[in-house]
Amino acid sequence: MTRTPELVVKDLHVSVEGKEILKGLSLEVGKGEVHALMGPNGSGKSTLANTLMGHPRYEVTSGDVLFKGKSLLGMATDERSRAGLFLAFQYPVAIPGVTVSNFLRTALNARLAPRAAGDGAPPARRGIAPREFRALLREQMALLRMDESFALRYLNDGFSGGEKKRAEVLQMAMLKPEIAIMDETDSGLDIDALRIVSEGVNTLAGPDLGVLLITHYQRILDYIKPDFVHVLLDGRITLSGGPELALELESRGYDFVREGKEAATP
Questions:
Q1: Does the pLDDT at position 54 exceed 60?
Q2: Cα distances (angstroms) measured from residue 34 to each of 80, 107, 145, 207, 233
Q3: Who's near 148: CB < 8 A, 6+ residues apart?
Q4: 3-class SS letters over the chain
Q5: What domains can you pick out in the chain, each with its CATH number?
Q6: In terms of C-beta distances under 8 Å and separation of at least 24 residues, what long-range contacts does 240-246 make, across chains too?
Q7: Which residues contact 166 (CB under 8 A, 6 or more apart)?
Q8: Residue 231 in contact with residue 245, Cβ under 8 Å?
Q9: Neighbours of 251 (CB within 10 A)
Q10: Contacts (Cβ under 8 Å, ≥6 apart) of 47
Q11: Could you report the per-residue pLDDT of 82-119, keeping only the tens digit for each?
Q12: What's the distance, CA 18 to chain centroid?
């Protein structure tokens, strides 16, 4: 029996301020898989990421997005997160005055409280106990080889590009999503930061996590090995393949995909 992928995007059309950006995009991502979505500027990559998480600026005009068999389109962003989706931002926002630790505990409590209630937990318990949270945070930071002092800093306030992306990976480690969407995680990173962030993603990858890695360039795929590579042009996935496709894009650019698309169009 063939297993249905957790995330299924079906003929998705999305408009922003009346302009159609996605024009019939279809994609499936299952747990245990790493999918790389590549494409030039303006092709619709970040539009897809924001649409999947329910950003109100992005209007779905037709098509559907199913997560574990249920449509996401009527769900608020926090409901999508509780269901098991996660978005790592291209440009994470600084929150002065809120430590990484406090932010993570608040996020984890918001994520866990509905599940605890549904599992018959006592009404008095809300989220995760402080001692349990501290132990979990230390465990995940050790796994990602992060200094514990990082948790005491204000979230993204004065962080370097690499530190901001590492904070996103730490959030992913704590929240344990089933599908993680990583929107141009390599943006603004030097080689050393890229390697460190990629190692964190690889540490978390496994049978319980599917990753949709959105990127312009092949270089991050030297560190995070995809199972599938998809090319997004003009709002549609026009070509899919294995890891070798990313290398071909690196050497030939997107012109050969455009030319093939034009040749296939009657």
A1: yes
A2: 20, 25, 22, 10, 20
A3: 138, 141
A4: CCCCCCEEEEEEEEEECCEEEEEEEEEEECCCCEEEEECCCCCCHHHHHHHHCCCCCEEEEEEEEEECCEECCCCCHHHHHHHCEEEECCCCCCCCCCEHHHHHHHHHHHHHHHHHHHCCCCCCCCCCCHHHHHHHHHHHHHHCCCCHHHHHCECCCCCCHHHHHHHHHHHHHHHCCCEEEEECCCCCCCHHHHHHHHHHHHHHCECCEEEEEEECCCHHHHCCCCCEEEEEECCEEEEEECHHHHHHHHHHCCHHHHHHHHHHCC
A5: 7-93+177-264 (3.40.50.300), 95-155 (no CATH)
A6: 246/36, 246/38, 246/218, 246/221
A7: 144, 146, 150, 196, 197, 200
A8: yes
A9: 8
A10: 14, 16, 21, 22, 58
A11: 999 999 998 999 999 999 999 999 999 988 765 444 44
A12: 26
Phi–psi pair at 66, nearest 5 degrees: -105, 135
- The candidate with the shortest Cα–Cα distance to 102, out of 71, 123, 133, is 133
Neighbouring C-beta atoms of residue 103, cutoff 10 Å: 18
pLDDT in tens, 173-192: 999 999 999 999 888 888 99
| CB count in 10 Å sphere of residue 159 | 18
Sign of the C-alpha dihedral computed for residues 240, 243, 244 and 247 taken in this order: positive
R_g (Cα) of the chain, nearest Å:
19
Question: Is residue 113 within 8 Å of residue 100, measured between CB atoms?
Answer: no
* CA 141/CA 148 separation, integer angstroms: 7
